[in-house]
Description:
With 326 residues, this protein is an alpha+beta fold. The chain has one domain. Strands 1, 2, 3, 6, 7, 8, 9 and 10 form an eight-stranded mixed β-sheet that branches. The protein is globular, with a radius of gyration of 22 Å. The site of zinc ion (ZN) has 7 residues, from helix 3.
Amino acid sequence: MTSSDDLVLDASHLDVELDFPRSMEEMLLPDLYVGLEIDLLSPGDGIVTNRHHASSDRYEADDPQNQIEGQISPFTLSGWLRHGCEQVLQIAGATACHPGEANADYMREGVYQRDLDSGYHEKGSCLDDHNDGCVVYDLFGGFGDQPGKLLRRPVSFSPIRRNVDVLKGEAEAHYRQVSSQVRSRNDEDGGKPLRQADRDVLGNVEGTWKLTLRDLKPEFVGLLLEAVSFLDVHSDEFTFQLGGARNFGAGIADVWVLNPLYAENEVRRVFNRAQATTSAMEEKDEVWASECRPAFVRALQARVAARNADVPISDDSESIVGGGSA
Ligand SMILES: [Zn+2]
């Protein structure tokens, strides 16, 4: 268990001077809130719901009166976020840690080698020349004794807005189990159903995913900021949609990192339709975009450059992936 009291933004291991205009006490760190807006989500590994609490004999899966609450799996979310982080490193000119082990039982032959040829290094091979490995290995963890530094919680959801606390990483969302009948196309079958497919989906997901850094290295913050920007800009590309049913428009996620300079009531305000942005929030947005965010991106560049001498650290530290504001 880490206490936020002894967490400091320490850049001493990086070969770069970093000047943070605000102290840790003025930031929500080590927590980072990822804002989520997803019209339709069909998580590949399913949704945990509380529906067994409903009286089972009267439960109708498609009854709009159902007030089903539950959780979105952190595994689906984590894989999607890690993929975004890998892309950031590749765009920066480095290779990313492969998420799988080299000797794993892959369903396709030669797939690991093909990945290594297209921007990945073998998982954990980065430990050879840097104690902590590459920044993705360091952040997400690796073999046995490398637990990772990022706590990725499930997102709890409820269809009832007043039950949703965005400071706990919760979202408003509406659960349905969708059944579709696949019917025969042959005249002689008279359109009889051949099979039924059931799928768990969530509609109109709106809220936060709460991430917590157990170790507050500034390059971790830079990597997460850049990855979330990348995923937002590329949200409707098949590879970067979240979960399943991607050809049906599921998993197109509008995402952003909520300004870490916000106070807790300001985070709540972002999701309160009755309240507009205050001028204090606008001022924090300006400080964040012009001074804080570039410092974190610069820390990421310095960490990547420590392993790859030919990766540049830009003076103005613009976004590596372009786009996104937060
Ligand atoms: Zn690595």
